[in-house]
Design a protein that fits this description.
It is a single chain. The protein is an alpha/beta fold. The protein folds into 4 domains: 112 residues, HprK N-terminal domain-like (Udp-n-acetylmuramoylalanyl-d-glutamate--2,6- Diaminopimelate Ligase, Chain: A, domain 1, 3-Layer(aba) Sandwich); 118 residues, Beta-Lactamase; 136 residues; 97 residues, PucR C-terminal helix-turn-helix domain (Arc Repressor Mutant, subunit A). The chain contains 20 helices and 16 strands. Strands 2-7-6-5-4 form a 5-stranded mixed sheet. β13 and β14 form a beta hairpin.
Length: 506
């Protein structure tokens, strides 16, 4: 292509003494090809960006209305400009032609000197073809270097580096959510942000029929915007192959494969995680907290369906799948005023399916594997205790104590709670459980009574009995840690007895 300004500067055009009748929106308006014609019905034969040369022979014998129609048709086709040679056919530029061109924003020029149109077309179209050839050679050079980089094991970083080296401008490969997987030719994060906001050219990267992301190209010293427009879709197709071949992903079930690898900590880095998360159609927004989920059920499908409904209802990104017979997932929770505690908020959002679900800590995307592993590691303890949907932060102590055998746990209980266990065994009461709930409620009598479903007066009586038996206040800071450990050990012992079918120890 060449611009209107470059067209007007051609020797053949200068010899025709052009005068501007209607200015273009910009002198940089592109001209894709230059034609000459004298037929009135030329409009349907032209395309956007074409420039038409005419002596007006086809307009000489028609009325003003037909001439206006001729202008409207050319403008509607997106013609770049019209140049009318004044002479025998049209001694002067008809007023209706000028008026309609102004109304339609069609650039219009008059040529005062006679120059063979074949000469003008030859010069202009030779420039266009030469520019197009340079762009094609540039694209070929980029793709050759990109393929060489990929063959050498350079991966996506090698792809963008090779492209930036040839174009002389910045290149970035980004996921659909805007996370940068690889970038080259940018000085800093601010420059990368500018490239993503206003690329000179961009093209989508589709892998396995998934809108994975895009390549973004910035202006460079070795080509123009038209060259980048030509390069972008071709580079995107190569990028799709590179992304599709990353890691152990597969078209079959990229979500389950990625979750399995995160669980075993075999995803080598953040770039690999971004590539494969995009393949699994998981696109957390920048800054979103990522939370791991794990659940054990005879049939994980209802659990996964419940997670999907909950995530969809709140517009959350969810990556989930069945791995080794268990339901695993990652949820991206964007920041919001009601989500200052993403884990607590998500725990309340998840449906009660009758299965145990553990909710890992909120982490940045690069640490998603850690949250998933924490949720999965806590699953056996949560299942033993029958906790329902529970954050892993509430299972820290039970998980630590779960490594002890029954004898060690009973020693912890007896050292701190012997008077209570003896009373419970003798009376059939459950003071140990009451104390455990009270400690977990942070010492709040109101929350404890609500959790136990008893009146506060009944709770006060129980707490008074506990303190009398222990010989010290239950809210005594000096004994708080021991009581928390001991009541947790008692809960674990009770859960083990229940799971083994043993009579409950007192």
């Amino acid at each position: 292509m060449l611009t209107i300004a470059e067209f007007l500067a051609l020797p053949a055009v200068r010899d025709a003494a052009p005068e501007e009748a209607v200015a273009p929106a910009s002198p940089e308006t592109s001209v894709r090809w230059v034609h000459s014609s004298e037929i009135y019905e030329i409009g349907p034969l032209l395309s956007a960006g074409d420039l038409l040369l005419t002596t007006g022979l086809g307009l000489a014998g028609v009325d003003a209305g037909a001439r206006r129609h001729w202008v409207r048709e050319l403008a509607g086709r997106g013609v770049a400009a019209v140049a009318v040679e004044l002479g025998r056919s049209l001694p002067d530029l008809p007023g209706e032609l000028l008026d309609e061109a102004r109304r339609r924003g069609l650039p219009l020029y008059v040529l005062r000197q006679v120059v063979p149109f074949i000469r003008v077309c030859r010069e202009a179209n030779a420039v266009i073809l030469d520019a197009d050839a340079r762009r094609i050679r540039m694209v070929d050079a980029v793709l050759a270097d990109v393929h060489a980089a990929l063959a050498a094991g350079g991966g996506t970083p090698g792809l963008v580096t090779a492209a930036a080296a040839v174009t002389g401008g910045p290149v970035a490969l980004v996921t659909r959510s805007g996370r940068v997987v690889a970038a080259a030719g940018v000085r800093d994060e601010r420059a990368t942000d500018r490239l993503l906001r206003r690329p000179a050219a961009a093209a989508p990267v589709r892998v396995w029929d998934v809108d994975w992301g895009a390549v973004a190209l910035g202006t460079g010293s070795a080509t123009d915007t038209a060259g980048l427009d030509l390069l972008a879709p071709r580079l995107a197709r190569v990028a799709a192959v590179a992304v599709g071949q990353s890691g152990a992903g597969s078209a079959g079930d990229p979500a389950a494969t990625l979750l399995a690898d995160l669980l075993t900590d075999t995803v080598p880095g953040t770039r690999e995680l971004l590539l494969r998360a995009g393949l699994a159609d998981f696109h957390p927004a920048p800054g979103a907290a990522v939370v791991g989920l794990a659940a054990s059920a005879p049939d994980p499908r209802p659990v996964l369906a419940g997670w999907a409904r909950a995530a969809h209802g709140e517009g959350l990104e969810l990556l989930s799948g069945r791995v080794r017979g268990e339901a695993l997932g990652l949820v991206a929770v964007p920041g919001a005023p009601d989500r200052t505690d993403p884990v607590g908020w998500l725990t309340g959002l998840l449906p009660a399916t009758g299965t145990v679900t553990t909710v890992g800590p909120a982490v940045p995307l690069p640490e998603a594997g850690h949250s998933l592993r924490q949720a999965h590691a806590a699953l056996p303890t949560a299942t033993l205790l029958g906790r329902g949907t529970v954050p892993t932060r509430e299972l820290t102590l039970p998980q630590l104590l779960a490594g002890l055998d029954d004898r060690a746990l009973r020693r912890l209980v007896e050292d701190a709670l012997a008077p209570l266990t003896a009373w419970d065994a003798a009376t059939g009461s459950d003071l140990v459980h009451t104390l455990a709930v009270h400690l977990r409620a942070g010492g709040s009598r109101t929350r404890t009574a609500a959790a136990l479903h008893v009146h506060r007066q009944s709770l006060y009586q129980r707490l008074a009995r506990i303190e009398a038996l222990l010989g010290r206040p239950v809210d005594d800071p000096a004994s708080h840690e021991q009581l928390v450990v001991a009541t947790t050990a008692a809960q674990l012992l009770h859960a083990r007895d229940r799971s083994d079918g043993r009579p409950r120890g007192r």
